[in-house]
């Protein structure tokens, strides 16, 4: 699989793993899981707020990535944002299914500063997950405002890209660019401190 010159060695390795997965190489799936399971689990958990469900969705994300690896195009971007998009969509779908059953999940739109507090409170009995969530929240705060804002709206509040563009009055392309740059920086910061 061709990789753009701007990819980091990690991006190139992940892109190669996806190429192997497209050829049904299970070892490449295991390697990609090892590389990205922690940040993806944290992102899924931040959307869902349910650790058991988050782990189930994480497994489903990698199953889907294995199935759809042939669709990944390195010319369109690095592997992590591609996986994060799959994870986000699956987590939101899970929430929407739960919402259809009255009284289980309330998807009210909260203020960004309260979203993280709600997630931390829901996981007070899981100190490791709280630590991971706080670390991600700190990294979000370090991002330029446009990037941090769209990431919070997408991952913590569950807005679609189109909804974010409408709410912020920004072109959809700008929102997608801010999301991509923010995810890349978040991944770089997060993995840089945790690997």
From TrEMBL:
Which InterPro entries does the annotation name? RNA_pol_sigma-70-like, RNA_pol_sigma-70_dom, RNA_pol_sigma70_ECF_CS, RNA_pol_sigma70_r2, RNA_pol_sigma70_r4_t2, RNA_pol_sigma_r2, RNA_pol_sigma_r3/r4-like, WH-like_DNA-bd_sf
What is the protein name stated in its UniProt record? Answer: RNA polymerase sigma factor
Pinpoint the RNA polymerase sigma factor 70 region 4 type domain residues. Answer: 135-186
Biological process GO annotation list?
Answer: DNA-templated transcription initiation
User: Can the keyword Transcription regulation be found in this entry's annotation?
Assistant: yes
PROSITE patterns from the UniProt entry: SIGMA70_ECF (PS01063)
Q: Which family does it belong to?
A: Belongs to the sigma-70 factor family. ECF subfamily.
| This protein's UniProt keywords | DNA-binding, Sigma factor, Transcription, Transcription regulation
Name a GO molecular-function annotation: DNA binding
